[in-house]
Amino acid sequence: MTQPDVFREAADLTVVLDIRYPQAYLALHPTLRLAESIDIEIDWLPLSVAPLKAPTAPESADDRSILHRRHRANAIAREIQTYAQVQGLVLEDTYRDAQVGAFMMAWLYVRERNANELPRFLAESFRAYWALELDAGDRRAVAEHVEASTGDGPAFLDWAAREGESRVSGVVDELHARGVFAVPSYLVEDEIFLGRQHLPMISWILEGRDGPGPI
Description:
By secondary structure, the protein is α+β, with helices and mostly antiparallel strands. It has a domain of 146 residues: Glutaredoxin (3-Layer(aba) Sandwich). It is built from 7 helices and 4 strands, in the order E-H-E-H-H-H-H-H-E-E-H. The chain has a 4-stranded mixed sheet, sandwiched between helices. Helix 3 crosses helix 6, helix 4 packs antiparallel against helix 5 and helix 5 crosses helix 6. It is globular. The model has no long low-confidence stretch (mean pLDDT 92).
Protein backbone atom coordinates (compact mmCIF):
# COMPACT_ATOMS: atom_id res chain seq x y z
CA MET A 1 0.00 0.00 0.00
CA THR A 2 1.30 3.46 -0.90
CA GLN A 3 2.34 5.49 2.11
CA PRO A 4 0.82 8.99 2.33
CA ASP A 5 3.21 11.93 2.37
CA VAL A 6 4.57 12.40 5.88
CA PHE A 7 4.51 16.18 5.85
CA ARG A 8 1.50 18.28 4.96
CA GLU A 9 3.14 21.06 3.04
CA ALA A 10 -0.02 23.19 3.20
CA ALA A 11 0.28 23.43 7.00
CA ASP A 12 1.66 26.68 8.37
CA LEU A 13 3.57 24.94 11.14
CA THR A 14 4.66 21.38 11.92
CA VAL A 15 4.89 20.45 15.60
CA VAL A 16 6.64 17.29 16.78
CA LEU A 17 5.89 15.92 20.25
CA ASP A 18 6.39 12.80 22.36
CA ILE A 19 3.68 11.92 24.88
CA ARG A 20 6.21 10.64 27.39
CA TYR A 21 8.38 13.75 27.40
CA PRO A 22 7.12 16.25 29.99
CA GLN A 23 8.38 19.33 28.15
CA ALA A 24 6.30 18.23 25.17
CA TYR A 25 3.20 18.20 27.37
CA LEU A 26 4.08 21.68 28.61
CA ALA A 27 4.32 22.82 24.99
CA LEU A 28 1.00 21.36 23.83
CA HIS A 29 -1.51 23.87 25.19
CA PRO A 30 0.55 27.04 24.56
CA THR A 31 0.94 25.86 20.96
CA LEU A 32 -2.79 25.25 20.65
CA ARG A 33 -3.43 28.76 21.95
CA LEU A 34 -0.97 30.17 19.43
CA ALA A 35 -2.76 28.41 16.58
CA GLU A 36 -6.08 29.84 17.71
CA SER A 37 -4.79 33.36 18.29
CA ILE A 38 -3.21 33.81 14.83
CA ASP A 39 -5.44 31.34 12.97
CA ILE A 40 -2.89 28.93 11.55
CA GLU A 41 -2.98 25.28 10.53
CA ILE A 42 -0.71 22.96 12.48
CA ASP A 43 0.43 19.53 11.38
CA TRP A 44 1.13 17.44 14.49
CA LEU A 45 3.59 14.54 14.27
CA PRO A 46 4.79 12.00 16.84
CA LEU A 47 8.37 11.12 17.68
CA SER A 48 9.73 8.87 20.41
CA VAL A 49 12.76 10.23 22.26
CA ALA A 50 14.58 9.13 25.40
CA PRO A 51 12.59 10.05 28.51
CA LEU A 52 14.04 12.10 31.32
CA LYS A 53 16.30 10.13 33.62
CA ALA A 54 15.73 10.27 37.34
CA PRO A 55 18.70 11.49 39.38
CA THR A 56 20.77 8.83 41.07
CA ALA A 57 20.51 8.28 44.80
CA PRO A 58 23.22 10.05 46.82
CA GLU A 59 26.28 7.98 47.69
CA SER A 60 29.29 8.80 49.84
CA ALA A 61 31.64 8.31 46.86
CA ASP A 62 29.85 10.86 44.65
CA ASP A 63 32.27 13.25 43.00
CA ARG A 64 31.60 16.83 41.91
CA SER A 65 30.36 15.89 38.44
CA ILE A 66 27.83 13.43 39.85
CA LEU A 67 26.61 16.02 42.33
CA HIS A 68 26.27 18.57 39.55
CA ARG A 69 24.22 16.20 37.38
CA ARG A 70 21.97 15.36 40.32
CA HIS A 71 21.38 19.01 41.21
CA ARG A 72 20.68 19.83 37.57
CA ALA A 73 18.20 16.95 37.25
CA ASN A 74 16.41 18.04 40.41
CA ALA A 75 16.27 21.64 39.18
CA ILE A 76 14.77 20.54 35.85
CA ALA A 77 12.15 18.45 37.65
CA ARG A 78 11.18 21.39 39.86
CA GLU A 79 10.95 23.66 36.84
CA ILE A 80 8.70 21.19 35.01
CA GLN A 81 6.37 20.90 37.98
CA THR A 82 6.27 24.68 38.43
CA TYR A 83 5.20 25.25 34.83
CA ALA A 84 2.76 22.35 35.00
CA GLN A 85 1.05 23.91 38.02
CA VAL A 86 0.80 27.26 36.25
CA GLN A 87 -0.90 25.55 33.30
CA GLY A 88 -3.14 23.48 35.58
CA LEU A 89 -1.58 20.21 34.41
CA VAL A 90 -0.97 17.11 36.50
CA LEU A 91 2.28 15.17 36.06
CA GLU A 92 2.18 12.30 38.49
CA ASP A 93 5.62 10.97 37.57
CA THR A 94 8.09 13.33 35.88
CA TYR A 95 10.29 10.36 34.97
CA ARG A 96 7.60 8.06 33.67
CA ASP A 97 9.15 5.66 31.12
CA ALA A 98 6.56 3.65 29.23
CA GLN A 99 6.02 2.07 25.85
CA VAL A 100 4.28 4.50 23.48
CA GLY A 101 4.17 2.66 20.15
CA ALA A 102 0.41 2.04 20.25
CA PHE A 103 -0.28 5.70 20.95
CA MET A 104 1.96 6.83 18.09
CA MET A 105 -0.07 4.62 15.76
CA ALA A 106 -3.32 6.03 17.13
CA TRP A 107 -1.99 9.55 16.67
CA LEU A 108 -1.32 8.94 12.98
CA TYR A 109 -4.65 7.16 12.55
CA VAL A 110 -6.66 10.09 13.95
CA ARG A 111 -4.52 12.51 11.93
CA GLU A 112 -5.45 10.68 8.73
CA ARG A 113 -9.09 9.95 9.52
CA ASN A 114 -10.23 13.06 11.36
CA ALA A 115 -7.53 15.72 11.55
CA ASN A 116 -9.91 18.28 13.06
CA GLU A 117 -10.25 16.07 16.13
CA LEU A 118 -6.52 15.54 16.55
CA PRO A 119 -5.85 18.48 18.93
CA ARG A 120 -8.59 17.30 21.28
CA PHE A 121 -7.36 13.71 21.00
CA LEU A 122 -3.83 14.78 21.88
CA ALA A 123 -4.92 16.96 24.78
CA GLU A 124 -6.99 14.18 26.37
CA SER A 125 -4.40 11.47 25.70
CA PHE A 126 -1.53 13.52 27.15
CA ARG A 127 -3.68 14.32 30.19
CA ALA A 128 -4.53 10.67 30.75
CA TYR A 129 -0.95 9.50 30.24
CA TRP A 130 0.48 11.89 32.80
CA ALA A 131 -2.34 11.18 35.25
CA LEU A 132 -1.29 7.50 35.01
CA GLU A 133 -4.66 6.62 33.46
CA LEU A 134 -3.40 5.55 30.01
CA ASP A 135 -1.06 2.76 29.01
CA ALA A 136 0.27 4.25 25.78
CA GLY A 137 1.72 0.90 24.74
CA ASP A 138 -1.59 -0.98 24.96
CA ARG A 139 -3.45 -0.90 21.66
CA ARG A 140 -6.83 -1.65 23.21
CA ALA A 141 -6.42 1.04 25.84
CA VAL A 142 -5.42 3.53 23.18
CA ALA A 143 -8.31 2.38 20.95
CA GLU A 144 -10.73 3.69 23.57
CA HIS A 145 -9.31 7.18 23.05
CA VAL A 146 -9.58 6.72 19.28
CA GLU A 147 -13.19 5.67 19.67
CA ALA A 148 -13.94 8.85 21.57
CA SER A 149 -12.40 10.95 18.79
CA THR A 150 -13.33 9.19 15.56
CA GLY A 151 -15.93 6.63 16.61
CA ASP A 152 -14.02 3.74 15.08
CA GLY A 153 -11.80 2.17 17.72
CA PRO A 154 -12.17 -1.36 16.24
CA ALA A 155 -11.17 -0.06 12.81
CA PHE A 156 -8.07 1.46 14.37
CA LEU A 157 -7.08 -1.91 15.83
CA ASP A 158 -7.37 -3.50 12.41
CA TRP A 159 -5.36 -0.69 10.80
CA ALA A 160 -2.72 -0.90 13.52
CA ALA A 161 -2.29 -4.63 12.97
CA ARG A 162 -1.92 -4.21 9.21
CA GLU A 163 0.09 -1.06 8.72
CA GLY A 164 0.41 0.94 11.92
CA GLU A 165 4.03 0.10 12.66
CA SER A 166 5.19 0.85 9.12
CA ARG A 167 3.41 4.23 9.22
CA VAL A 168 5.15 5.14 12.46
CA SER A 169 8.53 4.04 11.08
CA GLY A 170 7.98 6.13 7.97
CA VAL A 171 7.25 9.26 10.00
CA VAL A 172 10.24 8.74 12.31
CA ASP A 173 12.59 8.12 9.39
CA GLU A 174 11.41 11.26 7.61
CA LEU A 175 11.72 13.40 10.74
CA HIS A 176 15.25 12.16 11.29
CA ALA A 177 16.06 12.85 7.63
CA ARG A 178 14.96 16.45 8.17
CA GLY A 179 17.12 16.79 11.26
CA VAL A 180 14.44 16.38 13.92
CA PHE A 181 15.61 14.25 16.83
CA ALA A 182 14.17 16.00 19.88
CA VAL A 183 10.87 17.37 21.19
CA PRO A 184 9.09 19.68 21.24
CA SER A 185 10.29 20.64 17.78
CA TYR A 186 8.70 23.29 15.57
CA LEU A 187 9.24 23.33 11.80
CA VAL A 188 8.34 26.63 10.16
CA GLU A 189 9.51 27.69 6.72
CA ASP A 190 13.07 26.34 6.56
CA GLU A 191 13.75 26.59 10.28
CA ILE A 192 13.65 24.07 13.13
CA PHE A 193 13.10 25.42 16.63
CA LEU A 194 13.46 23.26 19.74
CA GLY A 195 11.38 24.18 22.77
CA ARG A 196 8.23 26.16 23.52
CA GLN A 197 10.34 29.19 24.47
CA HIS A 198 10.56 29.90 20.74
CA LEU A 199 6.80 30.41 20.31
CA PRO A 200 7.15 34.24 20.19
CA MET A 201 9.69 33.92 17.38
CA ILE A 202 7.53 31.37 15.58
CA SER A 203 4.51 33.65 15.87
CA TRP A 204 6.54 36.57 14.48
CA ILE A 205 7.62 34.49 11.48
CA LEU A 206 4.12 33.22 10.78
CA GLU A 207 2.68 36.73 10.96
CA GLY A 208 5.01 37.93 8.22
CA ARG A 209 8.03 39.10 10.25
CA ASP A 210 6.35 42.47 10.75
CA GLY A 211 8.37 44.80 12.93
CA PRO A 212 11.40 43.87 15.00
CA GLY A 213 11.73 40.21 15.91
CA PRO A 214 11.34 39.12 19.53
CA ILE A 215 14.47 38.96 21.63
